[in-house]
Amino acid sequence: MSLVDLSNELAIGIDIGGTNTKFGLVNHRGQILTQGDIPTDKTPDIEDYIEDLFNALQPEIVKAGNKPIRGIGVGAPNGNYYTGTIDYAPNLPWRGVVPLAKLIGDRFNLPCTLTNDANAAAVGEMMYGAARGMKDFIMITLGTGVGSGIVANGQLIYGHDGFAGELGHTVIRPGGRPHWSTEINGSLEAYCSATGIAITARELRERYPDSTLNNYKSEEINSKVVFECADKGDEAARETFRFTGQLLGEALANFIMFSSPEAIILFGGVINAGDYIMKPTREHMEKNLLPIFQNKVKLVFSELKEADAAILGASALVWEAK
Amino acid sequence: MSLVDLSNELAIGIDIGGTNTKFGLVNHRGQILTQGDIPTDKTPDIEDYIEDLFNALQPEIVKAGNKPIRGIGVGAPNGNYYTGTIDYAPNLPWRGVVPLAKLIGDRFNLPCTLTNDANAAAVGEMMYGAARGMKDFIMITLGTGVGSGIVANGQLIYGHDGFAGELGHTVIRPGGRPHWSTEINGSLEAYCSATGIAITARELRERYPDSTLNNYKSEEINSKVVFECADKGDEAARETFRFTGQLLGEALANFIMFSSPEAIILFGGVINAGDYIMKPTREHMEKNLLPIFQNKVKLVFSELKEADAAILGASALVWEAK
User: Of A87, A247, A314, B264, which one has the greatest count of Cβ atoms within 10 A?
Assistant: First the structure.
């Protein structure tokens, strides 16, 4: 009789971004033993990309001590959990529907699970981060775009076709700001992403002639610059975050009345603005809730290091997979 | 060895409304064998109410042939599945938190499951109606108010505290129409309930001096009257449904991007307006979806008879309970 030490097993986490693909070998406790990356945008042929990935990962597997590997988890934009395909991802070099989970699974001879990056982040948070022990929570990623992963009854909600949790594209201001890449006007992403914050700051600074934001060229304005100006007391910059927080808070209230989560977990560059955005977010969230939901839902930041989160989230899919 | 014929078992379904409580004995196939009702509003003492219910139900149990009864399911406003309590229901005669499931369970000596009326409707639809075989759908009840029940991964979403699925109170027009009983402005219920439709019609008829809606006293205007006027070609009445359908469609698009359901099932008096409301609903729903969700989600009517649906939904909780 031989006993397999499960705690010895590793999971491979792969996070596919438009420019780079990061990967790492992760143990059960969420420690990244070894990691690396390859470019995504240099290989328009998907077969070449898979080969690059295999060649980069093999030495890492050896480096990690040739321990048994349970499987591979992949987070990618437009990744579909049910079909294992990446469907029409505008920022990736491969067109149409790419059977990524099958291609990776076959090349590595390991089970491969794929989902979108925000869903992977939610699973990572549930496994290793701020959502440990929670059965109902919503993960919101506030970066260049706004992504989301929704967990209810302890399970990620994939929905009928695997695309659930596109909260960034829900409308929060009907007939509002056009979006740069969708046909939907007034979406959460159009306002509360880093991209949206920069647009708001460019609009608002015109009403504040003395604002230090006026010292920047239009293309230099980003959420980091707005934060720095806000921190130095600039009113237009502070008003940018106040406005963004109000809209985010209103949106979160709607989400809470949908799935009644224990917590909302926020992740991404935008939360670096701290109280400038979180105070109005919390205020307008509570204000737009029915009394039965008020002062109950935790609004917390991710507990995963931003640099590690994508790999950890993707690797967590392996442990979560049945 | 004795074999129990499970198909012989019955479930008791109880639907508690502000004025009346309806009950029925239902078999596995969703047939109501016998039913009755008692007033809700005549018994401010909950103990008296439970006694009335017991006395009214006992003869029905006998009438149904004294078959084995698996349990009791109750749908009630503000009914909480986890705690079995009705919490601060504004339209019921009992104040505060009422431990209804325990009171009924003890008096009948049967397991008792409680949830809110819209959740019960969703379970009824899954068991006996339009959602048979579906694992992901959203039920929207459009009556005096707007209720909802959300099913994902084959399970009703109760959320962390049992209050999930309050979609009627999500905001669809920030800063919009005040609500008659909440502090939330611009909610779905404020516009798309029968109550909201009457308000819209009263507002719109002022802009249409020739509208037949102007022949009615303000308090006579309800969604049925608006439908009759629309059906006779009245422009203000038709515009009322067009506007309502637009807002409903926009809200449904947001819900779809949350949980990616196979279908949205509509129930309640408002859907009697048929195409006058459904055409704009469908149009604005599709228009506000990302392409990956478009032309996929079924928008269907409940398949349960309106008179039976509440009892069937409540009884279905019994078969669903683990």
Answer: A314
Q: Does the CB of A165 have a partner CB in chain B at under 8 Å?
A: yes
d(C-alpha A129, C-alpha B97), whole Å: 35
Query: Above pLDDT 70, what percent of chain B?
Result: 97
**Is A127 strand, coil or helix?**
helix
Range list of H helices, chain B: 46-63, 100-108, 117-128, 188-192, 194-205, 223-231, 235-259, 275-287, 306-320
Q: Which residues of A touch B297 (CB under 8 A)?
A: 160
Q: What is the pLDDT of residue B223?
A: 96
Task: Indicate the average pLDDT of chain B.
Answer: 94
* d(C-alpha A239, C-alpha B44), whole Å: 51
Contacts of B155 in chain A (CB under 8 A): 152-153
> Could you report the per-residue pLDDT of A204-220, keeping only the tens digit for each?
999 999 999 999 999 99
Give me the long-range contacts of A231-235 (CB less than 8 A, separation at least 24): A231/A276, A234/A208, A235/A208, A235/A211
Shortest Cα–Cα distance, B193 to chain A (Å) = 17
If contacts are CB pairs under 8 Å, which of residues 192-231 in chain A contact chain B?
Answer: none
pTM for the model stands at 0.93
